[in-house]
Amino acid sequence: MVTKALPKDQPTRDRIVQAADDLFYRRGFEHTSFADIAAAVQISRGNFYYHFRSKDEILSAVIQARLSEREEMLARWDTELKAPADRIRRFIDILTRNRALILQHGCPVGTLCSELAKLSHAARPEADELFALFRTWLRRQFTLLGLREKPDALAMHVLARTQGVATLANALRDETFLQREVREMHDWLDALATCPMPPPPRRKVH
Amino acid sequence: MVTKALPKDQPTRDRIVQAADDLFYRRGFEHTSFADIAAAVQISRGNFYYHFRSKDEILSAVIQARLSEREEMLARWDTELKAPADRIRRFIDILTRNRALILQHGCPVGTLCSELAKLSHAARPEADELFALFRTWLRRQFTLLGLREKPDALAMHVLARTQGVATLANALRDETFLQREVREMHDWLDALATCPMPPPPRRKVH
DNA sequence: GTCTATACCTGGATAGAC
DNA sequence: GTCTATCCAGGTATAGAC
């Protein structure tokens, strides 16, 4: 979710993964060719196969890199922020912090998962772990908040709303909308955290 | 959003558009080749170019077809359902009605717009009209509901939530989640329609 | 209107020199 | 570790017969 530099004094393998990560995000996996990555890393196309056996192997490495990057981020938040409500707020604020990229390219997690689903790609389950990672972390925060009855539903709700905002903000390139929705999610969370009771009466199913 | 048959007694051009529509949805635009469409329509690859000058032209035709199909659907709802709240409910229920397809392939509108954004494809603005169509229609319903202050924000909110649910339900193939979120959107709408007042106090920005 | 044949290109992947 | 040269599959698009 962060724009990266490409320091030349890094192992070539890592530079390939970084460049691929960035290009897969901006142009999509399938639409990115070896020629594109090679140009970004400034190596020859043939050189790839010293580091990876196939394009799919690069994809795998990219997903793993994204996973560990997100894990570190969440761990950092856990130490920096003590109140679970603050941590959830920080999660929601990803939308604001990365709004420039999101407006241009959408959510890196959501768009990758959608693309791999259409491609029926073998790495799909790996990519879905990115969602699972956030889901588990959010669930823990809601549990800590005292909402023990349905922390998972709340986690999924937050994931879905942020996904929707990212998709729509990207399609319509509407930053105002993005900011407004972030505010509303904050309000929603405030109401939830202030009064840790199960929200308004649920209609019966049918 | 509806699975279509491929009646042989239809003009070939229309059959191409239908088959392409379906394949673009299930596999994505870029990942679908002429060979795939040709197999579905049972014509030869060369024959395409009698009906369309390029793949992009097929895409354009597919988007136009989707646009008019959705327009008709909304017009139908307008005559069938008199209460604007019922119309909005029907919109939300697209998720339930098409859940099988959505779980497998996501939202046809959202996934197409995301893909075209990554491809920097010329047809992107055309595809975005699909969102604009729903947005305008929803805005009108919210206005009719008596929520004249921010009908557009509400329309966008509904669009975003349905998008998010579709994306996440697709990634995690979670039908229970989809159904639960639909129920919560119904509850949300009920609260809104019952008390047509601007919702709870908004926090100040900063 | 539909077909076959084919041109042309791009993209992933391999071989082997340095 | 990196390069050049090359192969091959698959994709879009064209030409021209039927």
What does this structure look like?
The structure is a homodimer of 206-residue chains. Chain A has 206 residues and is mostly helical. In chain A, 72% of the residues lie in helices and 0% in strands. Chain A has eleven helices and no strands. Chain A has helices at 12-27, 34-41, 48-51, 55-80, 84-92, 94-97, 99-105, 108-119, 124-144, 151-172, 175-194. In chain A, helix 1 (12-27) packs across helix 4, helix 5 (84-92) packs antiparallel against helix 11 (175-194) and helix 8 (108-119) packs antiparallel against helix 9. The interface between A and B is large, with 50 and 49 residues. The structure holds a DNA duplex (18 and 18 nucleotides).
The mean pLDDT of chain A is 92
Order of helices and strands of chain A: HHHHHHHHHHH
Helix content bin of chain A:
over 70%
Q: Determine the oligomeric state from the structure.
A: homodimer
Going by helix content, strand content and strand pairing, the class of chain A is mainly alpha
Number of strands of chain A: 0
What portion of residues of chain A belong to β-strands?
Answer: under 5%
Distance between the termini of chain A: 41 Å
Number of helices of chain A: 11
pLDDT < 50 stretches of chain A: 1-6
Report the C-alpha radius of gyration of chain A, rounded.
19 Å
The largest chain-to-chain contact, stated as pair and per-chain residue counts, equals: A-B, 50 and 49 residues
Label the overall shape of chain A.
Answer: elongated
